[in-house]
Design a protein that fits this description.
It contains twelve helices and four strands; from the N terminus they run αααααααββαααββαα. The chain has 377 residues and is mainly α. The protein has a domain at 288-377. A two-stranded antiparallel sheet has the order 1-2. It has a two-stranded antiparallel sheet with strand order 3-4. The longest helix is centred in the first third of the chain and has 44 residues, at 2-45.
Amino acid sequence: MRKILTTFVISISLSGAVFAQAQGNESLKREVQHAVSKGISFLVKSQQEDGRWGVDEYPAVTGLVVQSILGDPGREGIAISKNVSKGLEFIRSKVRLDGGIYGKGLGSYNTSICMMALLEAGQEKDQEIIINARKFLVNQQSDFDRKGKADNVFDGGVGYGSRYSHPDLSNTYHALEALHYTKDLIKDVQGEVLDLDWDAAITFVTNCQQRPESNKADWVSKDKKDHGGFVYFPGKSMATEEGDDGKLALRSYGSMSYAGLLSFVYADMDKKDPRIVAVLEWLKKNYSITQNPGMGEQGLFYYYNTMSKALSILDVDQFELEGGKKVHWRQELTKRLFNLQKADGSWINENGRWWEKDPVLSTCYSLLCLERMYSGL
């Protein structure tokens, strides 16, 4: 009888704990919705007369705003607003003869993000635009050794476009994301379909990872604290530090490590692949919601965006840190974003690296994070 009673009491306690957590999540979701609504109000007020947000030559900013507004959990079942419609028309006005969606430059970056906005809007008239944009992105994939020479470490990656001579991990991740999510659109296309060399893309991403077992390059850090993480492109990191030998060591850093992880996921790699396991281990060891690990305040909101995206896709509920401590990253990051939101509903990074002093850009990154949090709570 005592055993039965004890089991009953434990069961009641567990039920109470689960109920309390559910109630806590519902309360947090209401706070998220409030923060999202304020953020979207700020964005709506920031729209230009021609439908764009940001400068004319970079429609990617408009693409991010469109995604942020369409992702509002409170708009379910509501028709696309006039603000979004005007934003979509601006994006369509930037479609080029080569299939790209851009202004004066940064062709692949702008095209990738605008493709995701058009896909999110789900309007049938945009299908041809997206398919042509896919072809444009595929043609941006680098292949420096078409004449049969030894493989180039940049082969398989995607860069900004014509003004830049080689690919980088950030643009590659954005391109892989857009191509991954639009794959179904080319299933029924008649004739030969141009598609990315996905194996080559994986090789390029691997060449950006500081994992000596799969990347034998001389530049790979000898310090184990960097192993598993990623840099911006082979031989180049935005995070550097003088090593014990007096030479400049390339450090792995947070935002690119999540971009690398996402690239592997979009390329449909096995989640048990040692390269994925290694980057997850690095991210656990360097877990932070107060800074972009290795970069401090630089690129903080980009980091939040890639972090929330990767962990949501992989369905990571808790992060077990070194020493066994478990953290509920969704709740921690959500509350962090609440504290960083300005009175007018915006977010801004006081560090201006990578345009994050632009409140429209940082607000989009933050809203996309919170909208994922809402779904996962």
